[in-house]
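Example (one chain per record):
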Amino acid sequence: MTTSPAVVWTPGLLAYRLSDTHPLDPIRLDLTVRLATELGVLDGIDVLTPQPAPDEQIERVHRPEYLSAVKSAPDIPWGAGHGLGTPDNPIFHGMHEASALVCGGSLLAAREIASGRVDRAVNIAGGLHHAMSNEAAGFCVYNDCAVAISWLLDHGFERIAYVDVDVHHGDGVQAAFAGDPRVLTISVHQHPLTLWPGTGWPGEVGSGDAAGTSVNLPLPPGTRDGAWLRAFRAVVPALLAEFRPSLLVTQCGVDTHHEDPLAELSLSVDGHRAIYQELRGLAEAHANGKWLALGGGGYSLFRVVPRSWTHLMATVLDRDVPAEAAMPADWLAHTAGLTGLPLPTAMGEGAPLDHEPWGTGGDPVDTAVLETRRAVFPLHGLDPDDPRD
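Predicted structure:
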């Protein structure tokens, strides 16, 4: 790698606060950075400070009239339409500025990679993957993931793979690129019959020349670490190998955790750590080592998100933190003053990650795996029934 990977952060990103009671509480970001700092993950790292993305960059994905609505919404008591003023996306003062700063963070990370200064970059405040071209959705005002991908396509990257491991379908990014054969979007999420937004079926494969570049792997509620990894490995590596992206972008939501209050998958912090290591290996094997990692969902604010995203930053930085590492005393003392919940004492949970490869016997996820493989593998010249592919 050229230099240490880029970490994008500023306390200004905490201004993306939808309401005082909203589940997307920016305290999760503050606690993550505190934990990573106290564990030494960020020692010697030149943390980069983003600036708000200018309108012309946000308009790569969003319509000008939507930006106007976001800017004016706080001054319109009755709301501004465009999905704003809903329980999921309440209007708040400084909404445009805070949302533009998140976009600016992901654009800064993208520019660092495109410049050749780094091969990897991470913006844990990013990953707002539900926002559509003309409306807010699912806690997301501007889709920083899609904005960054669009910018990268114009700055030297001919083929980009986007892998979304959030518990919710990465619908906004899929919608932005469903007709663009230069972008492969893969979303591994809880089954749409059981979770909002109700999209992300295996049959959603993209359109026209881009048929096969939208990939959806929906998993049943209750899926644990080993089964999740079994399914992921049965679908994602083969597609990346065939697509040959020049860069990997990942949305690393941690609402797949068994304690998350908004969904029903059953992963552990250990599972999240394994996923990030898997993504790092795939970037090295199939994307020239280039990896842009973004945050996403995650609503267990004190017990899960800080640990999981500290592991994410550590993985990007090649400073992997052992799962058995003790939680820092100062972090525990600070966080205990914010919540009455019992706090974890270690960076992992001791959860088992073992599993058999797909194709070696029955598992509840195998039906989902086969549906996804049969929907998209033939479009890439791969055999959906051959476990070697």
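Caption: The beta strands are 6-7, 120-123, 160-164, 183-190, 214-219, 247-251, 291-294.
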